[in-house]
């Protein structure tokens, strides 16, 4: 693969997306559907019957049973792994019980639905687990709680009223607090384990999140120094009348977790935009279509930058959700989802969600007329429906949608194991597809065929390798498992009747691994790099085609015995790589990159605006090309070999439609200034020719 094409493919591996230039490899492992009647994965040592959730609570140090522990079992309204997801607080309390004298508990639950279990006892940290289904025996070991203390400063002064959130993967938010007048905050009673800390405030830049590791009984400090950052001001008005929109929200966060409010004159003031890596502003107001604008990074200046918004009136869609006999279904979750492009190379989704009224009716306001929406409808016990809008929801109009009929939902469940039959826990499993009616429309080109925003769900296998998806409608689905370091395998599942149970077994080839460290020339770990993996003897590769190194460590799995080649390409900043050959199964492999110098700069379009989504390419004397993309702010970074002269070229996207944009060579306004560069250059400003 050519170096430039390989860099595009490796960037995709880092970002977790599909690159159009990647060469497809044959799938590893076997896939087969299990006939009815042979399902055995739901049996467990404690004999918890299907339809019950059982467990035992013990002291994490002594192992002694804990009597009287409080167990809370809740069922999320929509369930696990759906994008877009409603607020995590939307859940139904299924049971609140206590453990018996032997620490045991059991409760009946809906078999297919995922539940969140919390166990609490005085003197211990709470124990939490999400995605728990019936037939599961939980071993709950309670430990001493940890505590967090911290201080927030903004340009050296106490950061008052800063929101501090703690999140755990798979559980979401586990605490939220705010700093006091001195900038201090404290949280007690935290369980041991990994914890992500996020901060947000209207008065400063939002920093990148921090990953912490808590241990039983620890008191950990986490102090953060923020900068006030640039200021953006402007007005928000109605596009048709010019009237100010009081109460409109302006945010650099698509979920509006931190937002500036427009006053009675429509004026807003947003401090700290852009946050690191951000370049998009989102604006919303009741009755109007949400607007998104690419702004780019703001340079230091004497005064604030002004960005005004004129919001168009939004469209309205109304309809009714009914059951199989036409009776209205109350309290169903209804979301209109439309795919959009926020900026070149930046995709997102516009979502408006609500619940149905007692008669099953609903109304969705603020829709963007230029987007093609699909209606996502969910209610526990019913099969999920996805219905394309018959036409756009134009401004100041009410689009009446046909009734959406819900029928009894079925279940898709299965097990993931390796080539030796051992179950694989913690494996991500995706369910991709939709109900039969929507699938038929998609085949005729109606709706967002294959959009991950409406027809992809995620699950994680438990310790027995088991996964389950509830509320599955009659339709056509593909179940895929992506074990860490192994190539994904999948199976086609097609429920043909309401409430049907379908079972699948996915066998993943795990194979051998190569583990090691990737170091810079000075001995420091490389923050981010990717490698193109191949067999040295030229035979087809059975295993991952790419491997990502993070913070200097890499682990490529799923390899057959034999010599393998890894072609490393660095990222952050992009730079020259190195190739190694190593036997599958090798451990503690140390890879040293060549000595480099950093080259950084800014790419401007012909009109002087930052140019995002382009590629800046450094051409070396031997003809090799190193390339890096420009961010939403037009900035780029490259690491080039020390002492070698380089020439710079640029390629830019030619289209922003569906799929990946085409890239074509562009002309620089001053090409002579980027020929034969040597040494570090951190202030390059490149401009495209008209």
How would you concisely characterize the structure shown here?
With 690 residues, this protein is mainly beta. It contains three helices and 54 strands. The strands form 14 sheets. Strands 9, 10, 13, 16 and 17 form a five-stranded mixed sheet that branches. Strands 1-40-34-37 form a four-stranded mixed sheet, with no helix packed on it.
Describe the structure in your own words.
It is a single chain. The chain is mainly beta. The chain contains three helices and 54 strands. A hairpin with a 6-residue loop joins β30 and β31 (385-388). It is globular and about 75 Å long.
Q: pLDDT under 50 segments (min length 5)?
A: 1-49, 79-89, 342-346, 656-660
Largest sheet, described in full?
5 strands, mixed
How would you state the average pLDDT, rounded? Answer: 81
Morphology call: globular
Highlighted features:
5-stranded mixed sheet, 4-stranded mixed sheet, globular, 690 residues, mainly beta
């Amino acid at each position: 693969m050519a170096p430039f094409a390989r860099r595009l493919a490796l960037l995709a591996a880092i970002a977790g997306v599909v690159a159009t230039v990647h060469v497809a490899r044959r799938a590893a492992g076997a896939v087969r559907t299990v006939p009815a009647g042979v399902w055995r994965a739901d049996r467990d040592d404690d004999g918890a019957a299907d339809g019950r959730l059982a467990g035992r609570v013990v002291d994490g140090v002594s192992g002694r049973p804990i009597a009287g522990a409080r167990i809370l079992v809740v069922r999320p309204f929509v369930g696990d792994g759906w994008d877009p997801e409603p607020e995590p607080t939307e859940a139904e309390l299924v049971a609140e019980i206590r453990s018996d004298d032997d620490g045991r508990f059991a409760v009946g639950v809906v078999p297919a639905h995922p539940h969140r279990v919390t166990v609490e006892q005085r003197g211990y940290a709470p124990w939490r687990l999400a995605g728990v289904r019936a037939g599961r025996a939980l071993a709950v070991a309670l430990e001493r709680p940890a505590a967090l203390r911290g201080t927030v400063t903004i340009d050296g002064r106490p950061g008052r009223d800063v929101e501090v959130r703690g999140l755990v993967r798979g559980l979401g938010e586990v605490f939220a607090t705010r700093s006091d007048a001195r900038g201090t905050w404290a949280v007690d009673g935290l369980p041991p384990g990994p914890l992500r800390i996020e901060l947000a405030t209207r008065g400063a830049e939002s920093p990148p999140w921090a990953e912490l590791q808590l241990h039983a009984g620890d008191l950990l400090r986490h102090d953060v120094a923020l900068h006030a950052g640039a200021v953006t001001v402007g007005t928000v008005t109605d596009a048709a009348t010019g009237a100010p929109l009081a109460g409109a929200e302006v945010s650099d966060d698509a979920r509006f977790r931190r937002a500036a409010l427009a006053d009675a004159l429509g004026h807003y003031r947003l401090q700290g935009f852009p946050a690191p890596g951000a370049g998009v502003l989102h604006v919303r107001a009741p009755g109007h279509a949400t607007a998104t604008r690419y702004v780019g990074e703001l340079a230091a200046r004497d005064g604030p930058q002004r960005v005004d918004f004129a919001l168009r009136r939004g469209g309205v869609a109304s309809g009714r959700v009914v059951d199989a006999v036409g009776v209205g279904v109350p309290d169903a979750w209804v979301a209109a989802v439309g795919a959009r492009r926020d900026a070149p190379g930046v995709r997102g989704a516009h979502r408006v969600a609500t619940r149905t009224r007692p008669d099953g009716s609903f109304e969705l306001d603020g829709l963007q007329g230029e987007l093609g929406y699909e209606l996502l409808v969910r209610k526990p016990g019913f099969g999920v429906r996805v219905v394309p809008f018959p036409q756009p929801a134009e401004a100041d109009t009410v689009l009446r949608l046909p009734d959406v009929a819900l029928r009894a939902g079925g279940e898709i469940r299965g097990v993931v194991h390796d080539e030796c039959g051992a179950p694989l826990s913690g494996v991500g499993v995706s369910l991709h597809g939709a109900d039969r009616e929507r699938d038929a429309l998609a085949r005729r080109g109606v709706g967002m065929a294959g959009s991950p925003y409406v027809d992809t769900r995620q699950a994680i296998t438990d310790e027995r390798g088991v996964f389950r998806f509830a509320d599955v409608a009659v339709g056509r689905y593909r179940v895929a498992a992506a074990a860490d370091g192994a190539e994904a395998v999948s199976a086609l599942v097609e429920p043909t009747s309401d409430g049907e149970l379908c079972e699948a077994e996915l066998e993943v080839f795990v194979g051998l691994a190569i583990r090691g460290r990737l170091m810079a020339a000075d001995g420091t770990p490389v923050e981010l790099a990717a490698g193109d993996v191949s067999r040295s003897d030229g035979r087809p590769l059975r295993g991952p085609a790419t491997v990502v190194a993070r913070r200097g460590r890499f682990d490529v799995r799923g390899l057959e015995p034999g010599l393998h080649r890894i072609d490393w390409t660095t990222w952050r900043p992009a730079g020259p790589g190195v190739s190694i050959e190593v036997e599958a199964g090798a451990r503690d492999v140390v890879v040293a990159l060549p000595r480099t110098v950093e080259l950084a700069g800014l790419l401007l379009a012909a009109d002087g605006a930052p140019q995002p989504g382009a590629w800046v390419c450094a051409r070396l004397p031997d003809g090799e090309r190193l390339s890096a993309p420009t961010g939403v702010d037009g900035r780029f970074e490259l690491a080039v070999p020390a002492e070698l002269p380089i020439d710079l070229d640029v390629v830019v996207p030619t289209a922003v439609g569906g799929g990946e944009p085409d890239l074509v060579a562009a002309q620089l306004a001053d090409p002579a200034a980027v020929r034969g560069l040597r040494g570090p250059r951190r202030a390059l400003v490149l401009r495209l020719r008209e």
